[in-house]
Amino acid sequence: MDPFDELAAALRQRLIARARAGEDVDVRAFLDAEAGALTEAERAEVGARVERLAAGLGPIEPLLADPEVDEVMVNGPGQVWVERAGRLERTGVAFGSERELLHAIERILAPLGRRVDEATPLCDARLADGSRVNVVIPPLALEGPCLTIRRFRPRGFSLGDLVANGTLSASLAEFLSACVRARVTILVCGGTGSGKTTTLNALSGAIPAGERIVTIEDAAELQLRQEHVVRLEARPPSLEGRGEVTIRDLVRNALRMRPDRIVVGEVRGPEALDMLQAMGSGHDGSLSTVHAGSAEEALRRVETLALMAGVGLPHAAIREQVAGAIDLVVHQARLRDGSRRVVGLSEVVRVASGPATRELYVLRDGRPVWRAALGDGLAARLGRAA
Question: For 199-244, what is each residue's pLDDT tens digit?
Fold first, then answer.
């Protein structure tokens, strides 16, 4: 930590102790007495940092100001971890007490009209800058309140950026760009933190200008660069339990908005059925992500989520919709060194039992390998779009 930050944190703790003891403390006089060896400019800087710690998010404020930090994870007052370049690191900062951590959480949630308490110990929210926040407090969190903040990147990566940082090869980027232009429906799968949304955002950059795009997200993260984009975000229920608008509601409504493309940030519930029906009824070229460890698992997960809609469709009908709606599955993973890589690309084909995957591309021993030629249908679509 920066020495000034260390000094500011220590001074803040002393101010808190004096305030709890009932003393009336003048902050400027306190700084002059406690940091008299510093210059006037340095004392002003330390004073600003003390104020930031008192009114902001406490000891994690410098971490959130660090551009290299992608995620901040607070596991109770004594443990603060960050993710840098895909790797987890434990920091030297900590909250003074559980109460102090809860105050920081309240300062985050209050402007958003959200709160956590024993009756509602879980909360998801989005900060004004787009960063995603998750909070879990006791009695669910046994070691104290847990706070997770995923930093928002104001400028999304392009396919060229992903090639430059090694996420995918140049040939794969060129192929996927051609697929997006040809209105091939693409599903990006992978685990938590594998970079699915980043890749989805990069793929969306290949959508031709002039098309009307509707994006649907649980927490708005996508930063599309086209001019004609309508961004929709789900809304959780109010403190009274009313006013909830789900992803499924937004997918249904999007069909009435004359979209050329529908981009669903992540499918994780019964909205999968509405998404499949949209993709299979003239909204080809749509894009989405799903949590899954492989292309085959991604298709099975979409089937399972669609069955959660509870409309009574037989499993065979759901499988048929999956086979007809999704064309390609991009599999992304976070490797042991923390890097995010596209490790596989599969074409969705029909077999007697429903949809299946045919691997076209795989990352083997760090080297990209094309394994099979395109199917006739996909090759014909790319040829017509060329």
Answer: 999 999 999 988 999 999 987 888 888 999 999 998 887 767 788 8
Q: What is the pTM of this model?
A: 0.78
Which overall architecture, per CATH, does domain 58-152 show?
2-Layer Sandwich (3.30)
Q: How confident is the model at residue 121 (pLDDT cuts 50, 70, 90)?
A: very high
Hey, which CATH number is domain 159-385, 3.30.430.20, 3.40.50.300, 3.90.1150.10, 3.30.470.20? Answer: 3.40.50.300
> What is the rounded CA–CA span in Å between residue 150 and residue 81?
12
Delimit the domains of the chain by residue range: 1-55, 58-152, 159-385
Q: Which of 202, 189, 222 is nearest to 161 (CA)?
A: 202
> How many whole angstroms separate alpha carbon 17 and alpha carbon 252?
55
- Give all strands of the β-sheet with 132-136 in edge-to-edge order: 87-90, 80-84, 69-75, 146-150, 132-136, 122-126
Q: φ and ψ at 281, to 5 degrees?
A: -130, 45
Strands 287-291 and 261-264: parallel
Give the mean model confidence (pLDDT) for residues 56-77.
Answer: 88
Q: What count of Cα atoms within 13 Å lies in the side-chain half-sphere of residue 37?
A: 1
Q: What are phi and psi of 98, to 5 degrees?
A: -65, -35
